[in-house]
Queue: 4 jobs
Job 1
Amino acid sequence: MPRILKIHLWPVWFLALFGEGKSFKANPIIGSRLLNRLGLHVIRVLLARMVAHLRWRMLAPDMPADLRAQYHRDGFVAVPGFLGGNDLKAIRAELAAYRGPARQMLQGDTATQRILMDDAMLAACPRLKALADDRQMLKFLSYTGAKAHRPALYVQRIRNGWRDGGADPQKTMHADTFHPTMKAWLFLEDVTPEKGPFTYVRGSQHLSWKRLKWEYRRSLRAAVLNDGYSEKGSFRADPDDLDEMDLPAPEGLTATAGTLVLANTNGFHGRGQAAHGMDRLELFAYSRHNPFNPLPGFNIRAISRLEYAIMQTFWRRKDREAERRGYLATWHLIPAEQMLDGVDGK
Ligand SMILES: [Fe+2]
């Protein structure tokens, strides 16, 4: 049956317009060439941006003015020395000794490995727990994410050339979705160019007239794009696209251990090209919420706990499904010691 005739799904597709729904391929309303020609996508982009500015304004006391200015000028802000050398060593030592579940996703030749920093994990890592509860860090995450909400925190290791495979799609410049979202990294080791630093097109988060025109044009054919991501609402931008929008070349943000980087991932970004076999160890957070909700959030701990529990349940269901059908779950379990081999407290 053609998808368009699945009448029972129309309410679901329609409601997705008022939330984070972004797939041009899965949602025929979001992907409608006619509606996008009439401006559906650009209206969502503009409205979401206006609402994000409202929430940023309400959360302004959470971050010093100079850091806010950098964030809005460049699309990212780096805070070197956010974590001191002794804390870094202590956290790395805790991680080296940690035993528990980790999860891994494989994309091309690269593995992304993560440990969710839930209560059970943090109970074994007191220095890491102190960092997860650090008020300043939580405020920075709230402001940049335009939401007073404790985002999910992970220990993350990105391992380049982990296996034979094609190019890692995360290394192509892209915007995560149609509205401002935040991702943050607190690097636990120095990030040199060969480690594949986080890469950002400076200033590309601005909703310039050229960006808006590009978004409009892309929305007309997004449903039939086939790069695996653009059609799902995460538009890829090649050097010609960046040129078209008068944007500069991407730059790799090398960083010393202890640097906190917060970025608006509505700007074009990606992982840097890394030398084969090199990896990055970091704390990672991301914040993505209903872009049309003007409320700045209430920072309720119980809601975060509930989200962690829902995430764990979701993953376990995916594990069972994968086992039943005999394939590897997208985020499959690995032992933490496999993820953290070679990490030490020195
Ligand atoms: Fe991304």
Job 2
Amino acid sequence: MKNFSILVVIALAALLCGCISPQELPSGKINVVTTIAPQKELIKSVGKEKVNITVLVPPGAEPHTFEPAPSQMRAVANADLYIMNGAGLEFWMDKLLQVNKKMIVIDSSKGIDLVLESEGEADPHIWLSLRNAVVQLENIYQGLIRVDPDNRDFYLKNKEDYVQKLQSLDAELNESFASAHRKIFVVHHPAWTYFARDYNLDQVPLMENEKEPGPKYLGEVIELARKNNITAIFVEPEFNPKAAEVIAKEMNASIIDLDPLAENYLENMRYAGKKIAEGLIS
Ligand SMILES: [Zn+2]
């Protein structure tokens, strides 16, 4: 009888275990929360299988106006480490800190030479520069070794491997832009400031002061594009496709999709570099 009840207890315990969601089980991994999807690949490349990563801004959401939902606070409460983009993107960070006072918070923009916008605020799109990403990777590495100093060598090796990938793509892009006849590329919203700085280019945004453009501004951009024989405009998934079509037709340019928030960071940067370069060399 006694043996039987032990079996029942074990069976019950197994059943109960099955009902508990995976987040409640200690995973033995470092729980990292970050703001935007491109950061995930950077963090994963250093932390590999030792990290669990939660991204707060969901695909398709507008990161500049995004604020974490109450349902996301649980991931924050369980976080060991928060990797901020920094440069002003997380204007709601104080709220998150109240949920979890113990997590280590790293600002991945630390050490990056920030570009100031006309209102004196930093341009937050730091990740769209491979050179900035090298600095961000170092900050991520510093965060991981603070949480898990025993695995310092593991993180160091991973960091160095990924830095090499970033630098070799940077060298490739540098070479392709060096032979560009033109320097101007037209984008939807001005996310490519740091990218343009790296390769000595000029981005011309279709948006006027972060808003949908007025006819006067749009006329100027179209004029500029014609003068410079612009062959492509780069638009984001959120951009009104009808408006893009009208503008592209006026410029006699083709539309190329470019997502600054793609999760496959390195591949996306390679694609962006290739497409932008094609538009400047042809
Ligand atoms: Zn943006």
Job 3
Amino acid sequence: MELQALDQYVEEIEAASPGRLLDRARPEVRVALIGVLDSHRELTPEQGLLLYQAEGDDLRALIKCADLARAADCGDEVTYVVNRNLNFTNVCFVGCRFCGFKRQRWEAEAYDHSDRVLLEKVAEARRRGATEVCMQGGINPQMGPLRYRELLELIKGAFPEVHVHAFSPMEVMYGARRARMAYRPYLSMLREAGLGSVPGTAAEILDDEVRETLSHKKVDVANWVEIITTAHAVGLPSTATVMYGHLEQPRHIVNHLTLMRDIQKQTGGFTEFVPLRFVHHNTQLFKLGLVKEPPPRGLFDFRLYAFSRLYLRGSINNLQTSWVKLGVDLAALTLKTGCNDFSGTLMEESITAQAGGQEGEFVPVDLIEEKARAMGRVAVERTTLYRKLYDQRAPNGARPLAPAAPPPA
Ligand code: SF4
């Protein structure tokens, strides 16, 4: 479906009455949707499987209910964070088949940024109003045993006010092994050094069989869960993510979200859920023929987002769309299929771009505000941990940049 047709599709759903759409859905779909929407009844995995495969009238009813649940639980604000990605190295030995970002250290495009370059990038981000630096990189076999702590000390030493959101569970696993430390003291040490929160990436699909094909060297499910729950336990919140549109079956998505829901009940440490569409062009998965062309953009994404909103209802409140994976226009439409958060400005994005993504590296605040308005909503800047920054707005609604930090000496 073209973007215009998708736009019309969500508009028609928005205009229709919930009763009419629910009446047209199959009875078992209707029961599940009414239960979660009206009574906050948690969807069972069986209902999840049913809803995740919804099509036609069932899908329209699913999207309508997700949008109503979003309005009831989050209101009409669309949150976003002014942040900068900092991919400090692309040298990596892990070899994930879905990744187009990694390089071997002898390749021409390999890099490992110096401290000076990193500080310049953070200084530039601060001058442009960033409150967060999101720092992740390849798993570089030549890094020093305490490199991640040193990176935190470097950045927090120069910019103590910046929130550092960094180090996926894969990086934490590798870093802890290099430092010869257990996860708990290692994560506590990073927190002491200034780490503010952890990306819940490297999750892809939390199913060891699927992971074996995606990347047999990657952190396994047990370690991913242990690292994330330990991070939460030592006071480091994290995001929760899923990568979809590759080898996974519906049951993998449902099991993955069930696990996220269970972890959240145990720790309360997830700040948001972020579905990430697989970008295939420059990946081994695609080149080896293990994955064909992923499903067309549009309804497939709407269903995943709407399903996530309802399946996680009562556990993870914030659902983040990804303009990097979907493009700004399609991401804006997902604001009507359950999403309440537009992610960040990023300023620099290599991981998806290197996999063949063509959506750019930066979205200015003005564009986020414009897209939110076009969807009948209002954009509000937030911090990484979802504190809303209304106070940064001038009376005329203009959003001043945060004070610029001086460039590093
Ligand atoms: S996804 Fe991360 S760990 Fe896997 S190959 Fe790419 S950079 Fe390395």
Job 4
Amino acid sequence: MNKLPHIGTSIFTVMSKLATEHNAINLSQGFPDFEVDERLIDIISNRAKDNVHQYLPMSGYPPLLSKIAKLVKKSYERTLQPETEILITAGATQGIFTTILALAEIDDEILILDPSYDSYEAPVLLCHAHPVRVALNDDYTPNWERIEKACSSKTKMIIINNPHNPTGKILTASDFEILESLLQKFPEIIVLSDEVYEYITFEQKHISAHTREKLLNRCVMVSSFGKSFHVTGWKVGYLVAPEHLISAIKKVHQFLVFSVTSICQVAISDYLDFVSVEEIGPFYQEKRDYFRSLLQESRFQLMPCEGTYFQVVSYASISDENDVDFCKRLITEYGVAAIPISTFYANKKDLKLIRFCFAKNNATLEAAAKRLCNI
Ligand SMILES: Cc1ncc(COP(=O)(O)O)c(C=O)c1O
């Protein structure tokens, strides 16, 4: 008995394991290797001595909910009701899973844009709903014509990911205008907007789906403190959605996790008093630029990177083997781990592209680049 027969171990686990076995520099999985902000470590250490170790309210630690509302106000000038429009989740992963489980019914169609992050399909299948893959354009912009053609009375949800993993692409105001006019024809469709990299954008400013007047009543936005504050292992994220959707999602959330790890919520809440999210974009922009400059000497061709902490490169001028084999060889022969982009496509389309994570110390990036420039 297996409810997900076609889904195997994620490529992130496979590549990280191979990287460990071969002592390779791991630029595959999306997590930082640098120290967490000392202030956050001090907060969690000191808070451990307080009485913060029991269940918190199901929706989240009330001061954290209020501070997220304040953060959203400051970042996007949108006013939220902390008790009814925000839900703290065990990372964005649980936020996505719970949203789909709460809202998708048997035979609903859920649009997933290809290529995409790998967390969306499994919950859709577990609901006995149908994932409908719609390919992005070659430059990774949404193909709105194809998306419109895929929409029907059966469509329950469209999942967007902005900034986009793996391609680093971000949606523009004009993308949102097209999406809004398209969705006017389909009043039942909900937008699930995965924005875990909302604070990691560079030249262009991020537009959050829930700040769009025409979407806010039908949009569930998911974010991740793990990504924003370099603590991916803490697994704390949150949803922003209108009350009618959040209350449906809470019905599932209460039986999946009930309430998220208390001490992590408390520490993040305290940290939000003085951390400045505006510093996150420039911090990663410097890393992106540095990593790109190091790779200029290599035979890899750099793709654009507008947001996230991922750099996609083409190895077409180096090898014609498929991207999974190339990544394996990159680990075993050259000691650097990356993620093959084909694994983000439903049909495993191989475009000779691989993804590096540059959320790393400069010394790690330098050591990896030295090896990559020798290929
Ligand atoms: C696009 C995207 N969504 C969701 C997640 C998961 O976030 P979390 O660790 O908060 O569950 C990731 C992690 O890499 C991601 O890249």
